[in-house]
TrEMBL record:
Family in the record: Belongs to the unc-50 family.
Protein name: UNC-50 family protein
Compartment(s) where it occurs, according to its Swiss-Prot or TrEMBL record: Membrane
UniProt keyword Transmembrane helix, yes or no: yes
Pfam families on file: UNC-50
Chief subcellular location: membrane
Superkingdom classification of source: Eukaryota
Topology with respect to the bilayer: Multi-pass membrane protein
Length: 273
């Protein structure tokens, strides 16, 4: 390997530094210098580009979406660093919310592949209004409003006389809602069509009621976990125990099984004839 490095170094020194230096030779010379840890040129082109790419990825909605499903702590850590860099806890733009809207839009078309679901402009518009406007935008705005008001009034931690008051931003609460909604998109919107397809083959209580409602319950708990843990990133509020929010979810889930409420079907397929 040392001989290869030496050979490339010789090529760089004796060929590209020959009689003339064209733009191409200058570019290749720079790449070789940055790529090889020789002559004090640093860690190499790969490490330099990869480090910049990782920093860019953390700003992207795709990176945050994947990390919220695989390792949410990375997103929470990024929120703290973003606060020090921009001075705001909330995201700088709505690209993440836009990405979720795109996913919801795509997944809403899955049902037209199944039998007994006929395409209709009226039904499509109604479903999109329900999934995007009502369940995502309006419910998210309402949740952000209630939590920002409640935390600013009752949830702020005790501060010393030297510390200035910090308020919980409405936009950050909406970002927390968007983080939690990743769980509903991936767990429920993507998982329920599979269960529904199986229920067409095995139309029994397990596949038509128990499994869909259980999936909805798990998705709701996953949503609450990501939502509350995002709020807990704020250092100036009292830590919110997310477990207490699981109690009403499990209570409603138990009642749905006892009384036979197909909650998952009513939510997703309520607008279909």
């Amino acid at each position: 390997m040392l001989s290869s490095i030496y050979l490339i170094a010789c090529i760089e020194n004796h060929i590209f530094h020959f009689t003339f230096r064209s733009p191409i030779s200058l570019s290749i010379s720079f790449i070789i210098k940055m790529s090889l840890p020789i002559d004090g040129y640093g860690q190499g082109l790969y490490n330099s580009v990869s480090s910049r790419w990782n920093e860019y990825d953390k700003e992207s909605a795709q990176w945050q979406f994947v990390k919220l499903l695989t390792k949410p702590s990375d997103v929470f850590r990024y929120i703290r660093s973003h606060r020090h860099e921009s001075g705001l806890w909330a995201r700088n733009n709505y690209k993440f919310a836009g990405l979720e809207v795109v996913f919801i839009l795509i997944l809403s078309f899955i049902w037209y592949v199944f039998p007994k679901f006929h395409f209709s402009i009226h039904i499509l518009i109604t479903n999109l209004f329900q999934y995007i406007v009502r369940d995502y935008v309006l419910f998210g705005a309402l949740t952000a409003t209630l939590f920002s008001m409640f935390l600013n009034k009752f949830g702020l931690a005790v501060r010393s006389y030297r510390e200035s008051r910090q308020d919980v931003e409405w936009k950050f609460c909406f970002d927390a809602f968007c983080n939690g909604y990743v769980a509903l998109i991936f767990d429920f919107f993507l998982g329920y069509p599979v269960i529904y397809l199986i229920s067409l083959i095995f139309p029994n209580w397990f596949f038509t009621l128990f499994l869909p409602n259980t999936l909805l319950c798990i998705s709701a708990c996953h949503f609450l976990y990501l939502f509350i843990q995002t709020l807990n990133v704020l250092p100036f509020i009292r830590r919110i125990p997310y477990v207490i929010f699981f109690v009403p979810v499990f209570f409603v889930y138990f009642l749905s099984l006892v009384f036979g409420w197909p909650m998952a079907r009513m939510w997703i397929l309520g607008n279909f004839p």
